[in-house]
């Protein structure tokens, strides 16, 4: 059914353009290409009517239709709009079908859709998990039939539901899904910033219905009055008073016709006497003429919100069943309530007029009565809390208990901003003195997770500390305060908080975690690293038999790794700290200490072990939907892959890590660095440059370890770009920062890189000095990769036969290193030196080995240079064309690897945070490049 065939009813005119756009979007979704359409405009302009036409069109075309409508009351419910969207559909299905729809990643949506429990160990970033789960629920529903999501009044959606709509909008193109959202202008809504963000999304189509013209008003008047002789003067007067707004026009006409006004020239004068601002409140005049029961029922529906059960409204209005039925009939006849159940107003303007007519005290009284009603019926904590938000504080323990319970449930659902609303109201109640500290601490945690200003978080948490003497509560508050401070990029301030906490704590059991946290934070900033190092050096090295000991081992390993002590010693410390997965089991994947240990283990040439540890952390993050666990696990797996010479895998993981939605800014820089280093090896220098720019790697980067690494990466990139002066400046600046951090680990080979830059610039003495310093550090660290790099740089700086000899030593050293790309580069430099020495035959043999090894590990830049050297040596090599597995992009290779492991397209998509259609496209291109026809043939071709 087309839209145009569905508009035979009265009341929709001058909307041909909007209807055509909707019809096209419906057709596109049914053919598999989804989109978001936002109908934006003031109240009464006809947005809901266009949405109704879209629903009719979609249903006629075989689409499944799900609908939700926002309301001023519902904005305080965690994922309230999302639940309205899905719960009716899920409730209508057999249990086995519901379980199938919620299988896989869609299961992460369960907290948003069902009554939440009281799990105190909720990951702090569950909001991402729930958004991801809701997306896959949509995808699963759309797999059964094309889907229309009809979303009315989204400006009143709760923030978590709006964020879900944003999450979906960025991924909807590959789904047979159309989301049509009706919204008032942003300044009229509850969440203007989120609505503005939705409108700004690429690909979102925005329809802005214009007010009706005089001709359009005349058409509607003729339809409403069933008369063809409506006077032009009357039409003009109605147009002037209603401003072309269809709903206001209907209110004007209803009032005029009820008063017996005739639509002629004389009636025009009467129409012009109506004040425009009175139109939206004309419902109050009609209510005042009705029996008291009707007015009470209308107010009850306005207070209770959207889709109200008649028995709830009747009980709140204190009407018996017979009186309530008569009142409902009168309200429906007067076009105040819709003539259907559950009860709702014919238009939000009507609801706002009824609710807005209540004075502040009367409004609080109604909401208090509603809260009592919901408590008697044991209704969900969120609805109860939403009413309690509108009541006056009375010091009621029951109110505090209800609000804090609702806040815990909101956090479980991934809605920290809703939890913070409830907890602020609980603090205002206020709680009993012995409960106040706990509520303040919960408020501080919710505010932190909601991304509120650090000052706000600090004020709540410090107030909690001041209100309690319980050691456990105080330690939890101190840790929260420190982590919030660190996440805002203030490492010295976070260290100061932890030092304050340690001075405050007398319990030895509680002291250890605080000291471990202080050591981990302190090592990362030059203002605190000396004190942190001294604190760690005082520790006895524990065996790692329990979690507290493993925390200490993480600190000791990080300190030893920073100092560049022998790598074997550092590797053993890391292994004991990680405990074969026991650290993750106890701490979860959100621990900064965990990632220090994995990071250091990877630098010791134990990249395979580091990758396995990263896999354990990543699996934990995925199981719990932890934003930190997933992104950091991917980033560390990328680093471990890079350290083992699996460049394509490193690029794939690096890109996936940066694509995880909702990454905090403090995580973007280190994740970007890991991707950039791999892209340099592939020769994709422009993309690497763009990633550093997007990460904010400018001159004002704070002096914290994770961000200073971006300066090192940029120096390496500039060297590859032949911007030698810029490269040297970055590398020297990183060296200055590294020295302040006491970072002497030669795996961050700034001296070696700077020596090459200095040699290009003719500064040979300084180049030799830095190369010698790097070699000394590499000998102490004693990994094959570090020693190989040191020998290669010295070989490049030396002339003639001494240089060739050093490059041979470097190649021998790198043969024992897991870093295959470094081995390939050393072979390239050795082959080039042999060619220059006139040893053509040997040079060709070495260069061919360099090409083969570089191609195998995905170091395309080295492969290209080695191929050029072969040509110069006269070998006439075949054109450097990549075929088979080598021709796959990193993303294609990653998808193919997972498919070869037996994962279905849906499982691959869930794992990589891409759409199933993207997986299908990657596999299609992979089959073509490999010359195969099915996934069963993949396994033997990817090795």
What does this structure look like?
Helix 7 links the parallel strand 3 and strand 4 (177-183). The chain has 943 residues and is mostly helical. Among the domains are: 4-207, 3-Layer(aba) Sandwich (Rossmann fold), CATH 3.40.50.300; 214-281; 890-941, Arc Repressor Mutant, subunit A. The protein has a 5-stranded parallel β-sheet with strand order 2-3-4-1-5, with helices on both faces.
Tally the helices: 49
The first-to-last residue Cα distance is: 52 Å
How would you write the strand order of the largest sheet? 2-3-4-1-5
CATH H-level superfamily title of the domain at 4-207? P-loop containing nucleotide triphosphate hydrolases
CATH C-level category of the domain at 4-207: Alpha Beta
Relative helix content: 55-70%
Using only C-alpha atoms, the radius of gyration works out to: 34 Å
Total strand count, please? 5
Decide which structural class fits the backbone.
Answer: mainly alpha
Outline: globular
Per the CATH scheme, the topology name of the domain at 4-207 is Rossmann fold
Query: Which blocks of ≥5 consecutive residues have pLDDT under 50?
Result: 1-9, 115-124
Report the major sheet.
Answer: 5 strands, parallel
**Percent range for β-strand residues:** under 5%
CATH architectural group of the domain at 4-207: 3-Layer(aba) Sandwich
Mean pLDDT: 89
